[in-house]
Amino acid sequence: MSVHLVLIDALNLIRRIHAVEQRHYGQTGTLSDSTIAQIIHNTSTACAKAMEKIVSYHKATHALAVFDSENPCWRYETFPDYKKGRAKMPEYLAKSLNDIQEVFMQKHVDSLISEQDEADDLIATLAVKVALRGQQVTIISTDKIFLSLLSKHIRVYDYFTRRFLDEAHVESKFSVQPQQLIDYWSLTGDNTNKIPGVSGIGGKTAADLINQYGSLKAILKADDLKSSVREKINTHQEQLMMTRKLLCLQTDIPLGFNLKDIRLPLNDGQSMQSTG
């Protein structure tokens, strides 16, 4: 049987849908209990519709909604300022996640939540494992880190813009190849997650270096770097290695289940197509 595994970055999907629903009620002031209840209802309903559309459009044979652990992952221990300053999920939404997971389950999509692993690493582990078997994987997320996994068997789809984020997208946005993105971001840093790069090296310089030398490893070994670039890299070399470690997705997490556990009911995807 041909497999098409669809992996949903669950909090990425839920929080973006919630943000749209919340905007209908304004962003200022304390929300009343009735307004909160309505926002949660609307978010849950929109999440259900999104899941139907995702499964149907991608003709998934297997699907899984992957959540972050409730406990801080290893990246916070390595770098305490990881994701520092990012807006926290509203408490009322956090308390509603179990109900939304049940909504997903009603659409035959189970949820995966680890006690200690970040969703990014869980998704990467699953995607690589299935891709190595020559089967198709589609990751549903707007998180750019998954672009580093792009390959013959792994695709990334932005549900909100309704487009695949492919190699052409990576080339246009970053001027490097998908497999070079981790090295690229190691130099520039990742502002979204508050991970620092090499001070003084921006996107253009990083892309030029990657394209000239091929990899961060080759850059570090090069003996013909401009003195100004060499000085910046030498000054921040310890930080550079930490940044790369933080950016690398883990692909070897023990999962404790197999594909048959998340297989969608036969013909379910076809029946969903009529819902749009």
Automatic annotation (TrEMBL):
Its EC number is 3.1.-.-. SMART domains: 53EXOc, HhH2. Binds 2 Mg(2+) per subunit. Only one magnesium ion has a direct interaction with the protein, the other interactions are indirect. Mg(2+) binds at residue 120. This is Flap endonuclease Xni. One of its GO terms (biological process) is DNA replication, Okazaki fragment processing. Keywords: DNA-binding, Endonuclease, Hydrolase, Magnesium, Metal-binding, Nuclease, Potassium. It comes from the Bacteria. GO terms for molecular function: 5'-3' exonuclease activity; 5'-flap endonuclease activity; DNA binding; magnesium ion binding; potassium ion binding. K(+) binds at residues 187, 196, 198, 201. Residues 3-265 form the 5'-3' exonuclease domain. Its cofactor is Mg(2+); K(+). Belongs to the Xni family. Pfam families: 5_3_exonuc, 5_3_exonuc_N. Has flap endonuclease activity. During DNA replication, flap endonucleases cleave the 5'-overhanging flap structure that is generated by displacement synthesis when DNA polymerase encounters the 5'-end of a downstream Okazaki fragment. It comes from Thalassotalea agarivorans. Residues 200-205 are annotated as: Interaction with DNA.
